[in-house]
Write a structure and sequence with these properties.
The structure holds two protein chains of two kinds.
Chain A: E1 3-7, E2 10-12, E3 18-25, E4 34-39, E5 45-51, E6 58-60, E7 68-73, E8 78-83, E9 92-99, E10 106-109, E11 113-117
Parallel strand pairs in A: 2-11
Antiparallel strand pairs in A: 1-3, 3-8, 4-5, 4-9, 5-6, 7-8, 9-10, 9-11
Chain B: E1 9-12, E2 18-23, E3 33-37, E4 44-47, E5 61-66, E6 69-74, E7 83-91, E8 95-98, E9 102-106
Parallel strand pairs in B: 1-9
Antiparallel strand pairs in B: 2-6, 3-4, 3-7, 5-6, 7-8, 7-9
The chains are: A mainly beta, B mainly beta.
Amino acid sequence: EVQLVESGGGLVQPGGSLRLSCAASGFTFRSDWMHWVRQAPGKGLVWVARINSDGSSISYADSVKGRFTVSRDNAKNTMYLQMNSLRADDTAVYYCARDNYSNDYFDSWGQGTLVAVSS
Amino acid sequence: SYELTQPLSVSVALGQTAKITCVGNNIGRYNVHWYQQKPGQAPIVVMYRDNNRPSGIPERFSGSNSGNTATLTISRAQAGDEADYYCHLWDSRADVVFGGGTKLTVL
């Protein structure tokens, strides 16, 4: 069974940093593209970042470019999202999701981790 | 950028058919996917590449995509179908795009 478990969320002050993790199991993690998607309270889904299977191709939404960094450790079956210079509008539940192929649909999602940016 | 427009809300009577639209420029040229999200839960895919149902999704769910509109159709709507629904596609310039979401209410 595919499982994605996010962790690392919490309360952080504006300008601060946080690193999220997405631990994967039940599938061959090193073969799959992965994404981060966020959802502000009461709002819709917003794509954040994508990383291909070996980490050689990465893409970001304009809203996080230059502040967030996605990476992965295939030996640990884990994807990361390093978030710097956090702002109030980064407050959201952050989901990791598995791409079915490459730029295809997201066939599995984690349960999400809440990031709250506030002073 | 590429934008996907969904109605904020759709209401359907119990047992009737609901249609949720996703409008985008020449969206018929793209593979469109649909997700269902219930309160407090992560999204799940209910339709992929326009009209393909994942295993476990009832046959009451169907999809179409042509011209400027993709549509998710839910036949014989049930109370358990109440949820937010999001369309999604990948565009070579805009990258991953989600629609704003539609709240489905079953009356």
